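Run log // design_07
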């Protein structure tokens, strides 16, 4: 088993922005599998053409699809009045994908068309803020899922134009787009580039072996989910100590702890963290890593 030795730094590069339309050539880069442990590969999704469907000027998306039928056909989306709609080829109609006009406290139903049925799930808009690159505001929605759902919807944040921070299209079947990982980069030609990593968007991440010193120990994170304090307990001391990083689903390093040499219990204040899934990365004296996950709730 291998884990990452390079972790992500959140940076932005801005040019001018158009909030309503996405240009042909726009590209998204995602880590391949953040939900199940990051690896060194990436998934690329891009807009390759404009196409008119039912009188709507749509953008054709390709890349990252789970079966050849959609990989060859692509997905089609149009944006109008702060809402994004996805085309359903089986029913010849559009379904709501994103609603950037939704306000704090609103409930939004996201539709996932499949050949035999149109599935849906609900999200709550917990807060709405704005992000202003080069003087033009983009809406940022912090969300939470309502009720149980079998869809993989790992994102807690949705950005106007860019989409959810972990996936663009909700995952329902293996034919849907398979962007499970956190967003590396968003690049709209001559307009906006957003980088969530400090290396090239299409880089393969260098990895190292899992720490034998750490993997031989019983490491417990509690309580889980955690609200204000995360406790980390080891069954015995680690030779020459260890250090800790806490990383969110975007790959941002939220917390970095000094080296612990004589501790078997570590307490970390997480009261200011946003709700979501976090990785705790342990590093031993040899640079070997071990990753554990925890959930932060309000």
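design_07 sequence
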């Amino acid at each position: 088993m291998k884990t990452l030795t390079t972790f992500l730094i959140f940076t932005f590069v801005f040019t001018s922005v158009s909030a309503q339309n996405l240009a042909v050539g726009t590209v998204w880069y995602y880590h391949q599998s953040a939900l199940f442990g990051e690896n060194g590969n990436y998934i690329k999704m891009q807009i390759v053409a404009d196409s008119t469907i039912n009188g709507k000027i749509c953008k054709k998306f390709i890349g990252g699809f789970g079966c050849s039928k959609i990989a060859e056909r692509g997905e089609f989306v149009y944006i109008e009045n702060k809402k994004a709609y996805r085309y359903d080829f089986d029913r010849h109609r559009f379904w709501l994908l994103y609603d950037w006009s939704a306000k704090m406290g609103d409930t939004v139903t996201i539709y996932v068309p499949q050949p035999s049925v149109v599935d849906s799930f609900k999200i709550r808009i917990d807060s709405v803020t704005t992000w202003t690159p080069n003087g033009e505001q983009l809406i940022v929605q912090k969300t939470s899922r309502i009720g149980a759902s079998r869809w993989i919807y790992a994102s807690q944040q949705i950005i106007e134009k860019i989409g959810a921070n972990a996936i663009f299209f909700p995952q329902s079947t293996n034919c849907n787009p398979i962007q499970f990982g956190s967003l590396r980069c968003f690049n709209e030609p001559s307009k906006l580039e957003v980088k969530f990593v400090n290396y090239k968007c299409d880089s393969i991440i260098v990895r190292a072996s899992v720490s034998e010193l750490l993997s031989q120990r019983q490491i417990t994170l509690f309580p889980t989910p955690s609200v204000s304090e995360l406790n980390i307990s080891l069954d015995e001391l680690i030779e020459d100590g260890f250090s800790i990083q806490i990383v969110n689903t975007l790959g941002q390093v939220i917390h970095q702890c000094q080296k612990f040499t004589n501790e078997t219990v570590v307490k970390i204040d997480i009261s200011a963290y946003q709700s979501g899934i976090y990785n705790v990365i342990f590093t031993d004296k040899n640079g070997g890593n071990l990753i554990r996950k925890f959930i932060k709730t309000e």
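The longest helix spans residues 68-73.
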